[in-house]
Every structure is written in C-alpha cells, then in structure tokens.
Amino acid sequence: MAVADHVNFHTFMEGVKKRNPGQEEFIQAVREVSQDIFAFIEDKREYHEAQILRRMAEPDRVISFRVCWEDDDHNIRVQRGWRVQNNNAIGPYKGGLRFDPGVTESVLKFLAFEQTFKNSLTGLPLGGGKGGANFNPKGKSDAEVMRFCQSFMTELYRHIGPETDVPAGDIGVGNREIGFLFGQYKRIVNRWEGAITGKAQEFGGSVMRPEATGYGAVYFLCNMYAHRDDSIEGKTAIISGSGNVALHAAEKFTELGGKVLSLSDSDGAIHDPDGIDAEKLNWLKALKFERRGRISEYAEKFSGTEYRDGGEPWDIEADCALPCATQNEIGKEEAKKLVDNGVKAVVEGANMPSTLEAVEVFRDARLMYAPGKAANAGGVAVSGLEMSQNSERVSWNHEKLHDMLTELMADIHTKCVEFGDDGGDYVDYVKGANIAGFKKVADAMLAFGVV
Ligand code: NDP
C-alpha cells in the first residue's frame, strides 16, 4: 500500500471525535499534536503501517472508581476518581493527580496524552499518565481532605507502584494531599517505596521539586532568549495563577532581573506596576501555601496595586506572558490582545492554557511561543530524579538538582530547535516539541511490535 493511501489528518480526527464523543479537551489536545505529526510522518511508511499515532491517542487504560468519604457533619459524600494510563512505552506511567470540581475523564485524558510527549522530551524513562477526582479541597477541613485522600488511595493503590505508575501533585494536590495519599499507600502495601513523587523532603522528596516547574519554565524562556542573543534582564512579565507553578515562575523571573506585573487566581487578577519583588513573593507564598488565602488580599496589603475582580491579566502591556493557572485560559481574543500589546514571548507553565485558535494567533505572529509540554516539563523531570533518588536510597543536594534541571531544560530547548527551526530566525516550538516527543515513544512502540 502506498503511503498516500494511508489515512490522512482529517479522517484521523473524524475517528478521534467519533470514538471520544463530548470529550472536547482530549480532542483538542490530539488535534494540536497530530497536525504536526502527520506532516512529519508523511513519507514514513513504518509509522503509518503500525498505526502508531492511532495507538498513542487511545489510552492503554482508563480506570474510574467511586470515592466515598464522610464530611465533618457526618454526611456521606460520593466523588468519582480516575487514573488514565496513556502510554508506558518508554517507562512507567507518570503524571500528576488533580483534585478539582472541573475534573472530567476528558480533562484527564488530554493531560495524560500531553504528558506522554512531555515525559519523552525530558529524556528520562517516563511514560505518560494522569489522574484525579472531581473533589474540591477548597474550604474543606484538614480532616476532610485526609479522609478523602485515604478513600481515594484505597482504590488507587492497586493500580500504581514504582515500576508501574507513579503519580504526583497537580491542581488541588499539594504538600498536604501528597502526605495523606502517600501515608495511606504505605500503610496498605506495607512497603516504603517511591510510588508517589512531590513528597516532602522529610520522607523521600527531592530538593527543587516544588520549584522545578516554575523555575524550569523560566529557564526555558532564558534559552529562547539566548537563542536570539537576548535575556530576561529588564523584561516585564504578566503571569496568571498564584499556585505552585505561578509563584515559582515569578520568583525565578524576578531573580533573573525581570519584573513581574501580575498574578491571579480563579476569583480575579492583580496588577502591580511596581513589580512583585522577592519580599512581596514571600508574603504571597505564606498567603497561598500556608493560609490558603485569596489573591485579592495582595491589593489590600500593597498600595498601588489594582485588583480586577473576575478579571485576567492579558491586557496589561508586557514583554512576556506566562499562563500558569489552567487549560484554555487564553482564547483567540486574549491572544490577539497579547500580540497587539507587544508581547514577544509566551511560555506555558500550565498545561494547554491556550486554545487552538490562540495558538494559531501566536504562530501567525511568529512570536516566541513555548507550549506547556516543553516549557513546564521541569516538574516531571525532577519527579523522575526523585524516583531515581528513592530507588538508590540517596538524597542529592540542591546544587546537583539545580544543575540537572538547568541542563534538562536546555536539552529540551535544543530538541525543539532541532525539529522546529524553519531555517530562518523563527523556531516553531510547538512543532519541535510535538515531533521530538513523538519520535522517541513511536520508535519504542515500533520495537515492541503489535502490543
Ligand atoms: P495549584 O493548585 O498550585 O495552582 C493553580 C492556580 O491556578 C491557582 O492560583 C488557582 O486559583 C488557579 N486556577 C485554577 N483553576 C482556575 C481557573 N479555572 N481560572 C483561573 N484560575 C484558576 O496548581 P499548579 O500551580 O500545580 O498547576 C497550575 C498549572 O500548571 C496546571 O495547568 C497544571 O496542570 C500545570 N502543571 C503543574 C505542574 C506542577 O509541578 N505542579 C507540572 C506541570 C504542569 P484558585 O486558588 O482560585 O483555585
């Protein structure tokens, strides 16, 4: 059969839509990747014949389960939990757990699909997975969160393990939740083993893991600038979110001589024209990580700051934009605003924060645009290094982890340039990340035959 006779992109996407009715986020993620992959494999018969992309876009398995727990008023509550194990061709499934009322099977399938490419890009032996529950930890007592986590793990434990599937944190799953989840896992299996990453350092966590995603995104930006003989020094940034990724991205951006003008949460955004410096960031970390407060409190504390109730930061003039909150937070209109306002670099700390239409705007404007699967891979990379430390029963120091993270982000940048350089002065980082991420997994799958 001639290569040309094989299924084309449009027929392929029709099939994806038909097999995944109503799963808009998953379909969006597959479409974004597949456009580039179809162009890459056009003349590569082996990938077509082995149906590699079709197999990658069908999770190995989707596990869904009931999670019952009792709230403080003794009401019985029922939630739904999931683990999506997308692909383990190059290593155990690996990807975070998200606890958020907006979690659906579609969201987790998109995240697990993206994670497969991201983990491949790190160069570490990590497959792709994701999981979570439609549980909202906000406003719950510690005891309620503990009971939920224990119930969730009582089912999840049988599907995970250091050689099988290694979850971590994500939206709504931070230190507290990881502690409860790991405590219950260890209790059930009666083994201390690195089946979860993002642990606190007292019980097997890696230094640099909390910082890794945000810092890594900014290192990626440094590499993009360096590729154009420029740097972060003196640049301004608008950042969304005020969680783990956003605050660490802001910290590193500031440390490297830039000025951060905004942060946000799901209630609104702040605009501080004086810049959110190190001292203000320390206050914010205590607000968000210890007191679980709202970003609006920043405007009450620091004069000269505007609080935009229900608003976003995307119309503030700046050199760089770092969406670090959630998926689809930048649509076509916001993307146009960014371009019109002179933003030159968009670096995704969050997963798929830009819609397909927004990505088109960025690509058409040929600005430096780094998709999440490349720019936010630092977190999972250090999680991979946490797994290595747990297996070896060692703890590496800050300097070693810092150097490894810096090198990993530089390597990912190099891979993106290898496959995304158009020969002129433009690098299509989306294309570069998609192809580089695909190739390693695809070649492993070819080696395994039809499994
Ligand atoms: P956190 O829960 O620590 O923070 C999430 C932040 O985003 C909060 O400020 C939250 O506000 C805000 N947010 C959540 N949902 C919305 C929404 N619908 N609209 C506006 N703001 C919202 O999560 P992380 O920082 O860990 O994760 C942020 C993003 O980064 C996610 O896309 C995640 O998948 C991605 N990511 C995270 C990694 C990690 O290592 N943690 C690794 C790679 C990617 P509020 O407090 O009001 O909910």
Describe this structure in words.
By secondary structure, the chain is of the alpha/beta class. It folds into three domains: 3-56, no CATH class; 61-193, Leucine Dehydrogenase, chain A, domain 1 (Rossmann fold, 3-Layer(aba) Sandwich), CATH 3.40.50; 210-370, NAD(P)-binding Rossmann-like Domain (Rossmann fold). Helices cover 48% and strands 15% of the residues. The protein is built from 17 helices and twelve strands. It has helices at 9-19, 24-41, 45-49, 52-56, 105-121, 142-156, 175-189, 209-227, 244-255, 278-290, 296-301, 332-340, 356-364, 372-375, 378-392, 398-420, 429-448; strands at 61-70, 76-87, 93-99, 128-133, 165-168, 236-240, 259-265, 268-271, 306-309, 320-323, 345-347, 368-370. It has a seven-stranded mixed beta sheet with strand order 9-8-7-6-10-11-12, with helices on both faces. The chain has a five-stranded mixed beta sheet with strand order 1-2-4-3-5. The structure holds NADPH dihydro-nicotinamide-adenine-dinucleotide phosphate (NDP). NADPH dihydro-nicotinamide-adenine-dinucleotide phosphate binds next to helix 9.
